Amino acid sequence: MRCLLPALGLGLGLGLGLSSLSSAAQPRLTVHAGDHDRQDCPVSFDWPHGGGAWVLRTPEGRLLPIQRSGNLAWYVEPGLPRGTTRQYPLLPVPPSDAEAPAQGARATHRNQNLTLSLGDRPVLTYLAGPGELPREAIPEAFRRGGYLHPVHTPSGRIVTDDYPPNHIHHHGFWWSWPRTVFEERRPDFWNMGEQRGRTDFEALDAFEHGPVFASLHARQVFTDVLVDPPRIALRETWEIRLFALSPRAGVHLFDLNSSQSVPDASAVLFPRYYYGGFAFRGPWAWNGPAAARYLDANGVTNRVAANETRARWFWLGGTVEDALSGVAVLGHPTNFRAPQPLRVHPREPFVCWTPSQLGDWSIQPDSPLHSRYRIVTLDGEPDPARIEALWHDFATPPLAVLEGSLVPADP
Length: 411
Fold this sequence. Notes:
Oligomer: single chain
Largest sheet: 9 strands, mixed
Strand content: 35-45%
Low-confidence stretches: 4-17
Helix content: under 10%
Structural class: mainly beta
């Protein structure tokens, strides 16, 4: 495992000794809002190899941090009206300041698990290796890792569950498939208690943190246990990125990108089925027909009516520690069969994106399944207009173009 701590992960204060450039040589970032108002919106743009450490300067003189990851860089746009364009000059940061401890988002690796936090406030934990079962009566076959729990709202309330008694195989945010065909066998990777298949953690490849985001890269495997020795049918990678938004945003926001592929020439087939895919399980207190509240992009609030419909986002919430809290999950328009169908449980706090509802499909050796979701946790009443704006930020983000050289001129 490698820990990536990029030089652009710096804490920004107004006292930084920023280097100067002539106006002709100064690089600029041009940002086009597009058709939607933008506020507290993560924005990415292409970044050349190397380039050192830089910040953006707003028209008011504020400094906005930039954080690089590979050939992309990110910043959080504080506010840009629809149809407008803004240019941000880039200012180079001296190496002594670039090496300062990062402020904003943090990644902490402890006991096989990785927690992404904002300052000292945990937001999500990726449970890697299988941990302790919460109750003695749970059979060993259910023990697993490779999912998110707990996940917190800005107030610190936990909005996920793990090993709930009525569905022991449910885990916070997780991904699995119940109905598959692999090499003429029919493994079930979802219902692990039936011991027809498993979904498990494989490796934590990297994590990084800085002033704009904290992220992790992890791998899971889907194992067919109906053959001896067991066969890996699918390999999955997760990239999770938590953004350090302004407190005024009132939400926690993180992206989960998944890629699933077959390890060799054997395809995995998915017959038509009513559940299976990327899933969310809310806290135990939300069990019961009236204990949880639901809302989706179609304006539907009845869970029975929402089941097996297609929506680009949903919100599920309920009472946690005497206050309303909830989770919105936004599906990207490039996802397979988007807007994807939903399995919405009528009595339990469970929602799953289920492309198999629309008919048979497969993952072939030359066609991995790539999926993107944005997860937003919030306290209080859900605002459908705000969630819709967050979806547009995700689906059609601002266009940002870097212009000019990132090599500071000689003094």
